[in-house]
Structures are given as structure tokens and as C-alpha cells.
Amino acid sequence: MAEELTYKDVLRDPQYMKLLFSNLINRFGDSIDAIAFTWLVYRITNSASWTALIFGLNLLPNIVIQPFLGPIVERLNKKKVIVFTHILRGSVILAFVLMYLAGLVNPYIMTGFTLVITTIESFNLPASMAIIPSIVSKEKLAHAMSLNSSLSSAVSLVGISLAGVIIARLGVQSAMFIDIATFFIAALIMMFVKTVAETEDNTPEAPEGEQVDQAQAGGSYISSLKEGIKYVLRNSVMLDVCIFAVFINFFTVPIQSMQAPVADEVYKLGSGFLSVSGIAGSIGGIIGAAITPWIMRKFPVKKILVLGGVIFGGFMFLFSLGGMFGGAAIPGYLWAAMCYIVLAGSSNIMAGTVNIQFEKSCDQNYLARAGAVLGAASMAATPLGAFLVSLVTVYIGPGVLIGIFGIMVMAMMIPVFMSKADYEIAKGEVTNES
Fold first, then answer.
1. What is the pLDDT of residue 273?
2. Are 382 and 59 in contact (CB under 8 A)?
3. H helical segments located in 191-300
């Protein structure tokens, strides 16, 4: 048995460190922008239904467009795609800020810009997923992905903590300018990342594209798209991953899309609630991501997913009871923070397990295409859930709805537990044996 790897081994990889820094800088900007945008949407619309609706519309391009972009991205230089999309997204957000300063922003304008930004992101996501195995060896993959997730949560924690101060003292436009800057800095760092092929050959990443073309034997775009979809459908592990990812995303919609309405209508607290919940969620995310490789070494995948779902659903229900504090700040904040730590930790463990299984199980020649299918499938449930939430909240308050969803999550774990589907990775596969 080879010596077990640790996070230190991953940190010694200079190319991974560049990729990591690029991701973390980008994540920092997004965390600040998320607080500003969420509160801005709710304050402009003053409607929980509008908030959920915009949240759902924001994800549509990733569902409708992303599967068709996978075969295109497969043939392109992944690093160049990532750099270009970072620059383009920063430029689009800059245009949004200028319109906001000119007083031209309304819910429809906000929706249009988020659709454009998500469309650009639909190019970025398959490339970002596909480039990882060309930088990190398979035996380091679990630790590399978990470290990225854990540190991203830590950076988000810092960003969310600063967001309230920045918005209160400098205005929401300053938060957005920070987000814009992080896109350009992340793109600059990404330019210096070298894949394994570049490191060994000291040449551009073009050979990767050539290898993919040879693997596809000159196939057309349509045949390449069909091959990617068929690969997922006939691979039981890939299919199980997609199904559970859809499940996770659907039932987390109320928690993700209704933070502002919950803060106002359930907990009777102000915008500070968003920062508290964001900080708590980041702490939970750090813990969950950090322990995911250890958990996957000790327990089979199905047990991780079922137990994680039960815990998530249970604390989702407890979170919905925040109105019992009658608007008292300290107990309300403490209760919400406790729930968010557990919710974020359990969801990160489930998502990390799913993502690691996907990366380890997928043939690298299909990674961008299969990743695009996985991304679109997993996100498909989110707009559906958001539209459902936007309709139901007209008749049911956000707290009651979140409680119902929590009960449904726990109930759905019964068929998952009873299922004979092969969710499992053999114990020890994510250990660090060569």
C-alpha cells in the first residue's frame, strides 16, 4: 500500500495552486455580489414571488444551452475558454453597474442581465470541469476538489462578512465593482496555469484538442452530442449521479431563493440576516468539504447520501420554525446560524460525494460533454422548483413552504434507501493508494 496522500501533497502542485487562486479570487467577488444582488432584487420588487422567479430564470441558460455547448467546449482549448468567459462576464457586469448608476435598472433589466451572465457561464462550467483532470492526477482528485470547495467556502465567509460593511458604507455599486475586478484578476491568473500536456511538452494545449478529435474520429457536432448523452444514459454510475443531483437541487430551492423573504417575513429581521446566514453557511460548507474525503473512505456512497438527506431535511424543517422567536435578534440569529451550518455541511458532503464520483468514473474524453449533461440535468430541477415556489408563496408563507420541503426531503430518502441502484464506490477507492 502506497503512503496515504494528504492536502499538503496537493498544495505542492504549482499548477493546481494557480487554478485554486484563480477560483478563490473569483469566488470572493461572487460572494460579495450575491448579498448585494439578493437584497437588491427583493427591495426593488418587494415580492417573494419575484425573488424566486428571477432566481429560477437565472438558471435557464445552464439548462437549455449547456448540454449543447459540451461538444463544442470539448474541441476547444479549455484554458482559453475559461479566461475568455471570465473577461466577458466581468464586462457584462460592468455594463449592468453603469446602467444601475444611470437609474435604468428594474426587475426586467435585472432578469435580462442575469440570463446573459448565466449563458456565458454555460460555456465556463464544462471547461472548468474538464480541465481539472488535465492538471491534477486521479489519485489526488478527491483532495483537490475538496480543498477547492473548502477554501471557496472560507473565502465566501470573508466576502459575506465584508459585504454588509461595503454595501452600507460604499453602496451596492462598490460591491459590484469588486466583483468585476475579481473576474479580470482570475482571468489573468488562469493565463499562467499549465496543463500536464503543456508542462511535459512546453507547448500550447492544442494537442488536447487533437486527441479529442482523434477520439471522436472526425465525428460531427450532432454525433458528438449524441455520444455524450448516450454515454451518460448507458453508464449506471453517471445516471445515478445525475438523478441524485437533480434531487438535491430541487429541494434546496426554497433555502437558496427565499433568504430575503424569510429574513423579513419569518424571522422579522433585516438585511443582517443574510450576512449571518451566509457566514454560517460558509462555516458549514468549509467543514463539510474538508471531511468529505475522510467520510468517503469510511462509508459507502448510498449511506452518505441517505444520511445526508435525512439530516438536511430535518434541519430544513427546524429552520422554518424561526418565527417562534418573534423577531428577537440574538436567538433568531443563533437558531438560523445553527441550521445553516448543518444545512451547508450536509449539502456539501452530498454534493462533494456526487461530484467526486462523477470525476473519478467519467472517461476523460467524454468529460466536457458528460459534465454539460450533468450540469444541465442537475440544474433543470431548480427553475422548476423556483417557479413552483413563486406560485405557491402567493398562498403559503415562505416559512411553511420550507418546512414542507424539509419533510419531503426526509420522506424521499426512503426510496433512495430501498433502491437497488448501484450508488456505491468501493470502500477505499477515494483513499490515496496508487
1. 80
2. yes
3. 196-201, 206-216, 221-234, 236-251, 253-257, 259-261, 272-298
Asked if residue 432 has pLDDT above 60, the reply is: no
Rounded to whole angstroms, the Cα distance separating 352 from 214 reads 32
Are 62 and 382 a contacting pair, CB within 8 Å? no
pLDDT digits (tens, 9 = 90+) for 186-221: 999 999 888 766 655 554 444 444 444 434 434 555
6 exposure class (CB count in 10 Å sphere: 0-12, 13-18, 19+): exposed
77 CA to centre of own chain: 23
The answer to whether residues 147 and 89 touch, using CB atoms and an 8 Å cutoff, is no
Give the separation between CA 292 and CA 289, rounded to whole angstroms: 5
**Cα(111)–Cα(33) distance, rounded to whole angstroms?**
15
- From residue 308, give the alpha-carbon distance in Å to each of 48, 256, 299, 304, 344: 28, 18, 12, 6, 11
Dist CA 128 CA 146 (whole Å)? 15
- Please name the residue that has the C-alpha cell 467577488: 29
Does the domain formed by 7-196+219-418 have CATH 1.20.1250.20? yes
Q: How far apart are CA 356 and CA 350, in angstroms?
A: 10
The cell numbers describing 19, all together, are: 487554478
Spatial CA neighbour of 253 closest among 389, 69, 71: 389
Count of CA atoms in the C-beta half-sphere (13 A) of 382: 24
- Confidence tier at 431 by pLDDT (50, 70, 90): very low
Residue 53 has pLDDT above 60, yes or no: yes
Measured in degrees and rounded to the nearest 5, phi and psi for residue 119 equal: -60, -45
pLDDT category at 119 given cuts 50, 70, 90 is confident
pLDDT at 171 over 80: no
SS3 state at 287: helix
Closest-CA residue to 302 (of 233, 357, 368):
357
In the chain, what are the domain boundaries? 7-196+219-418
How distant, in Å, are the alpha carbons of 68, 194, 241, 371, 381 from that of 246?
A: 19, 33, 9, 14, 6
